[in-house]
Amino acid sequence: MSKEKPLIHNKRRNKIRLHHEGKHTLLYTGVLAAIIISLAWMSRTTLSWGSFIVIGIVLIVYGILLNFFRCPVRMFNGPTNKTIMAPADGHIVVIEEVEEMEYFHDKRLMISIFMSLTNVHANWIPCEGTVVKVAHQDGNYLKAYLPKASTENERSMVVIRTSHGVEVMARQIAGALARRIVTYPKEGEECFIDDHMGFIKFGSRVDVYLPLGSEVLVKMGQRTVGNETVIARLI
Question: Which residues of 82-229 form beta strands (DSSP E)?
């Protein structure tokens, strides 16, 4: 994940910048927006208020895209030992015991964070350790908040083994609008809280699978901030 180091270790906490995953999208839509605005402005004498409405809609849509591709620089200052951080901005939609059958093949505690279109869609590493498994699975594009999205949608898993020998999985899940999941970690690499895990384009969710008995520190419906909200602690 060396490509992310200049961003991750920037000490100017809360600085806002745009994520590099959005550069082409913002460039192409920016050119299109400029063309539409220019045409609407030149037609303002004949279209009257219609021209200003078109310009307003274009600016709002482009503003939403800028918001979507925000990439805040966040540094966690608390204790990291056995700490599980929120890997994404959004809100908690699932806290329950589930049968995880793709990697663990046993019961795990799952905490799911749903990201709406207005949330930052950068994802952060949830805990410190060594990356032991990275895998991508093609699938459907069901609405991300549905329970079966975890096992039926396109997804990417990252399994981290902590220094205590505990394995934690973070699973990025595509939603109804998402068409690209980007995952940065590689197997065998060390990873740290503050590191970026990846990016999901448009509405989606991230599931975190923990050992049973882990201390849950969030509740259903709670808003989370990636790399700032502590969602659980390992026992």
Answer: 83-85, 90-100, 106-115, 122-124, 129-137, 155-161, 167-174, 181-183, 190-191, 196-200, 204-210, 215-216, 223-224
Annotation says 204 is catalytic: yes
Helix (H) or strand (E) holding 71: strand 70-72
Distance between CA atoms of 12 and 97, rounded to whole angstroms?
38
Backbone region of residue 76 per phi and psi (left: phi > 0; alpha: psi in -120 to 50; beta: other values) = beta
Q: What is the pLDDT of residues 117-171, one digit of tens each?
A: 788 888 999 999 999 999 998 866 666 566 666 666 788 999 999 999 999 999 9
- Find tokens 């799911």 and name the residue: 112
Backbone angles phi, psi at 35, to 5 degrees: -65, -45
Whether 197 and 124 have beta carbons less than 8 Å apart is answered as yes
Q: Which of 51, 150, 204, 214 is catalytic?
A: 204
Which tens digit of pLDDT belongs to each residue from 38-49?
A: 888 887 766 577
Residue the block writes with tokens 């039926």:
152
- Distance separating alpha carbons of residues 198 and 13, to the nearest angstrom: 19
Question: How many other C-beta atoms can be found within 10 angstroms of the C-beta atom of residue 222?
Answer: 15
pTM for this entry:
0.78
